[in-house]
Design brief:
Length: 206
């Protein structure tokens, strides 16, 4: 090997060794707590014999990813670097809703969408907002807004609709504060959903 080629090989080896020592930052994985603690359990004595099936929550492609989104400017959302949800918000929120409805509603049982069991009613939902909002004064909040549709499966008729939106102030301006606020806002939506369904006596009670 001549001197010129030796210098090139040595240069490449140094670059490769340098790249190998630069470790990529680890990705922090966050989750939404699906444990539902009913604050004011239903006091109804009458229980419906109807079965409810809960469809997986739908949303835009951006929300349907594992990215944790934040927004500082109107109409502009960005993902936090090196931080992701453990699963997509759509999937985890659906599990949270099923948990809360089971504990507080008057239905005989509540099934996930993949169940082969037959249902008398179907609950569909669309997640419209799910992000950490940074205000101009550098305060921030977790925002969750979602629409719900109660449907009669055989006819496809929408028999009841509702929309819930919660803004929970973040304790810190970073991803940790955003995730904590989004968890609290998600729980508030789930509790409101369960209480709303329980109030529909003329629709869910036989």
């Amino acid at each position: 090997m001549n001197r010129h080629n030796f210098i090139i090989v040595l240069f490449i080896a140094v670059i490769v060794a340098g790249c190998a020592t630069n470790s990529v930052p680890a990705i922090d994985s966050y989750t939404i707590n699906i444990t539902c603690e009913i604050e004011r359990p239903s006091e109804k004595n009458t229980k419906s014999s109807k079965v409810l099936k809960v469809s997986k929550t739908k949303s835009t492609a951006a929300i349907m990813s594992r990215h944790i989104l934040y927004q500082e400017k109107e109409f502009v959302q960005n993902p936090y670097a090196h931080s992701k949800w453990s699963d997509t918000p759509n999937k985890v929120l659906t599990s949270l809703f099923i948990s809360c409805i089971n504990k507080n509603s008057v239905f005989k049982s509540v099934l996930p969408s993949h169940s082969k069991g037959k249902a008398d009613l179907l609950l569909e939902s669309r997640l419209l907002e799910f992000y950490h909002h940074i205000n101009s004064d550098r305060s921030s909040e977790g925002r969750v807004r979602i629409e719900f549709y109660l449907i009669e499966p055989k006819s496809g008729e929408v028999i009841a609709t509702n929309e819930f939106m919660y803004k929970v102030t973040s304790k810190t301006l970073d991803v940790n504060g955003g995730v904590s606020a989004l968890n609290d806002a998600s729980k508030a939506v789930a509790l409101s959903l369960a209480q709303w369904l329980s109030s529909l006596d003329d629709l869910v009670i036989d």
